[in-house]
Design goal:
Elements: E1 2-6, E2 8-9, E3 12-13, H1 16-29, E4 38-46, H2 50-62, E5 72-80, H3 90-100, H4 104-109, H5 117-126, E6 136-143, H6 154-159, E7 174-181, H7 199-207, E8 210-215, H8 221-230, E9 236-241, E10 269-273, E11 276-277, E12 280-281, H9 284-296, E13 304-313, E14 316-328, E15 336-342
Parallel strand pairs: 1-4, 4-5, 5-6, 6-7, 7-8, 8-9, 9-10, 10-13
Antiparallel strand pairs: 2-3, 11-12, 13-14, 14-15
């Protein structure tokens, strides 16, 4: 089942009352289904309403008749900034302004204010593990921190509420997170998520065995270290840069950027951005050596590694995306076979 709702369209504001009436009807529709296995929710909303709208949908899901059968949940949230002030509480003020203009019927259905951190915590605690069949989840959002970001950072405190929903699913093992842009601080609120007081999120992270990240920029070595610490049981890890960012990620990180991945001793499959140097890409032979090193570090289950990036030829990067695919079972270079595929002809791949 798919639900699609918007309160803006291509930069043109819709009537607020009509938008919220449609949202109320969409949420109420969930009551009609008794045994859903897959649910995809697409939201195009004002940034000041994102947190409240997200919680409204979660409340509908955890009180639904299908909460015991739901196996896959996807949220796709496209936000448009509607706050022009970079002052604390601007998001709260804008939300109250929107809410005050709603009809009595819609005001009775929706929250009168953006949910506080305490309210969100109480809701999650009261409904912990209420989605017992949920195995996989996907979040595609404009404004959200990465799971390896600093928990005490302003960005995570303000926008990390998406991750709290993982506490509802004790059997969740497959997580796909796509972040399209860095969070916008124009719609900050007075309340922070206080993520550091919520070890349940770290527990949820630790249960994930398949993690796929589509992100705007390559994490630094500290970010990779946090990812390894927070997701220690990964069997399948994929980190992919958004296609329009392949040109912009930092050079000279070299292979040491990925050193900490050697601590993911349950890893079987791995896909990473191709490390880049100032004068070219890291060579396939060096990548093959890295695969061998990971095996020697204890990743004895690792059998497939893919590096994706832009081809470098004659000292310049070309708009040709390549995937270097290594398959192997040992600690010697000869144990790993290299395959290449991508936007270029086979004959052009040999000069990477």
């Amino acid at each position: 089942m798919e639900l699609y709702w918007t309160n803006y369209q291509y930069g043109m504001d819709l009537r607020v009352e009509l938008a919220y009436t449609n949202l109320r009807k969409s949420i109420s529709t969930l009551k009609l289904f008794t045994s859903l296995k897959r649910l995809r929710i697409f939201l195009r909303i004002k940034s000041s309403t994102e947190k409240a709208t997200y919680l409204d949908f979660l409340k509908a899901i955890v009180t639904s008749k299908f909460r015991g059968t739901l196996e896959h949940l996807e949220f796709r949230i496209d936000t448009k900034t509607d706050c022009s002030q970079y002052t604390e509480g601007a998001g709260d003020d804008r939300y109250r302004e929107i809410y005050s203009g709603l009809s009595t019927q819609n005001q009775g259905f929706f929250s009168a204010q953006i949910p506080s951190s305490d309210e969100l915590n109480r809701f999650m605690a009261a409904n912990s593990q209420c989605l017992p069949a949920l195995k996989s989840a996907r979040f595609t959002v404009d404004n959200a921190p990465l799971p390896m970001d600093n928990f005490e950072s302003k960005t995570f405190q303000q926008y990390g509420f998406h991750y709290k929903s993982l506490m509802l699913a004790p059997k969740l093992r497959d997580l796909h997170i796509s972040i399209t842009k860095i969070p916008d601080d124009t719609c900050i609120t007075n309340d922070a998520i206080k993520i550091e007081s919520c070890p349940e999120i770290l527990h949820a992270f630790s249960q994930i065995t398949t993690l796929r990240l589509e992100i705007p920029s390559l994490p630094d070595s500290i970010g990779i270290q946090r990812l390894v610490e927070r997701f220690p049981n990964l069997k399948d890890l994929e980190i992919q840069l958004n296609s329009n960012r392949l040109w912009s990620y930092e050079k000279d990180e070299n292979l040491h950027l990925y050193d900490e991945i050697g601590n993911l001793n349950k890893l079987e499959m791995l896909a990473l951005p191709w490390p880049r140097l100032t004068r070219g890409s890291v060579s396939p032979n060096a990548l093959r050596e890295l695969c061998c090193w990971w095996r020697m570090e204890g990743l004895d289950r690792l059998g497939a590694v893919t590096f994706t990036g832009i081809k470098c030829a004659a000292g310049s990067f070309q708009d040709i995306q390549l995937h270097l695919y290594f398959v192997g079972t040992g600690t010697q270079e000869g144990d790993w076979n290299l395959g290449m595929f991508g936007d270029s002809h086979d004959a052009d791949w040999m000069d990477v």
